[in-house]
Structure formats: C-alpha cells, structure tokens
Amino acid sequence: MPNKSKKEIQNLEKRVEAIEEVLAAAASGDFKSQVKIDTKSPDLLTSIETGVNLLISDLGEEMKKSQLRASELQEKLDLIEKQREAIEELSTPIIKIWDQVLVLPLIGVLDTRRSQSLTENLLTEISASQSKVVILDITGVPTVDSAVANHLLKTVASVKLLGAECVITGIKPEVAQTIVHLGVDLSEVETLANLAEGLKLAFDHLSFKMADNRKKPTTGLQKKDKGV
C-alpha cells in the first residue's frame, strides 16, 4: 500500500510538472502544447488539466485574432502612408515649364516634414535637369508662419548653392503682412506678384525673347500707288 501511494505521488508530481511546462510554453508564445490527460481514471487534477488545455487553446485563438488585426492595421497604415505620399506629390509638383526653368507651385499648408521633402525633391530635380531658374509660387499657400518663411529662405539659399536663381511669386497681401510682422527678411530674395511675372523674369534671365506672333490690326485705307 505505501508503494502504491508513492507511485501516485510521483504520478501527481509528473502531471503537475507537465502543467507547468505547458504554461511556460504559453508564456513564451507557444500555444500548441497541451497537457496529456488520462481519461480512463479521471480525478481532481484531471479537471485542472482540462481547464489548462482550454485556457491555452483560447489564448492561442485570441493571439491569432490579434495578429490578424495587427496585420490588417499595418496594411491600412501602409495604404494611408502611400496615399499621403501621393497627395503630397500632387500638391507639390515640380514642373519643367521651359528648358532650364522649373516651377514649383505650392498648395495647402506647409508643415516642417512637407517643407523638407519638397526642398529635397526640388534640389534633386535641379541637379538632374541642370536648371538655371526656379520659381516658387506660393499663391496656393493660405498662411505663412515664421517656420515656413525661414524654410523658404533656406530653400532659396540651397537653390543658389546649386548655381540656379530662385524667385518667389504669388505673395498675397495678407501673407506679405504676416511676413513683415514676423520680421522675416526677404530683401535678398527676388519676389514678384504672380507666376506670369516670374516667367518673364526667368526668360529675361536666360536671354530668351518671346516673339509676339499676334497680327497687328490695320488702321485706315492703304495709300494708292502714285499715278493711279
């Protein structure tokens, strides 16, 4: 009888160790392990083993759902990032309006991240196209704060370092007042009222002459030949 009790105790110890191993595996992220249950001779520990197996199984299912939700969320975040990049690219297109002349029409609010991105893209395009004149048109920028104004100045300085001239066009009256109020010095920057004036300046800088092909209207009757 004592030998039998000892065997029972050893068996119980092994079963408890098995439960501990399964729980430890679950704690490390392994939810596939299960406690082996002797259904032929159930006892009080059998119910605990069954409960542990159910708990591990439920945790595994919840982990799969969490991973699936995390994957779906990441896909949505990636899509949002791609959409943001597309919108940013559309809102800051660099247009080669003429040979050696680039126009960058700025539209919407300029934050620090977007300002840095457009400057990097602009400098890359200048280097690739060997452009000599860059027009920054801010007609579509509703407001300009000190950070945006200072970044525009840095952009102009960077453009000049690449050997190109830079002119800012489209400064609205309210934006001009804000710049003056902020104390931002644009005296060293060429500024013009609109994009058309900027293009004229660019063509003049490159010694282009725009031909006026419009026909002049005739006035009065032509003189008759003498002797007629």
Task: Map the helices and strands.
Layout: H1 2-27, H2 44-91, E1 95-98, E2 101-107, H3 112-129, E3 133-140, H4 146-161, E4 165-169, H5 173-182, E5 190-192, H6 195-205
Helix pairs in contact: 1-2, 3-4
Strand elements, count: 5
Shape: rod-shaped
Report the end-to-end length measured between terminal Cα atoms: 153 Å
Which regions have little confidence, pLDDT < 50, spanning 5+ residues? 210-215, 218-228
Strand content: 5-15%
> What's the gyration radius in Å?
38 Å
CATH class wording of the largest domain: Alpha Beta
Supply the number of helical segments: 6
Placed side by side, the strands forming the largest sheet appear as: 1-2-3-4-5
How would a textbook summarize the main sheet? Answer: 5 strands, mixed
CATH architecture title of the largest domain = 2-Layer Sandwich
For this structure, what is the CATH homologous superfamily of the largest domain? STAS domain
Mean pLDDT equals: 82
Look at the helices and sheets and give the structural class: alpha/beta
In a nutshell, what does this entry contain?
This protein is an alpha/beta fold and 228 residues long.
Q: What can you tell me about this protein's structure?
A:
The chain has a five-stranded mixed β-sheet with strand order 1-2-3-4-5, with helices on both faces. It is rod-shaped. 18% of the residues are buried. Mean pLDDT is 82; it is low at 210-215 and 218-228. It folds into two domains: 2-88, no CATH class; 92-205, 2-Layer Sandwich (Transcription Regulator spoIIAA), CATH 3.30.750. It is of the alpha/beta class and 228 residues long. It has helices spanning 2-27, 44-91, 112-129, 146-161, 173-182, 195-205, and strands at residues 95-98, 101-107, 133-140, 165-169, 190-192. The protein contains six helices and five strands.
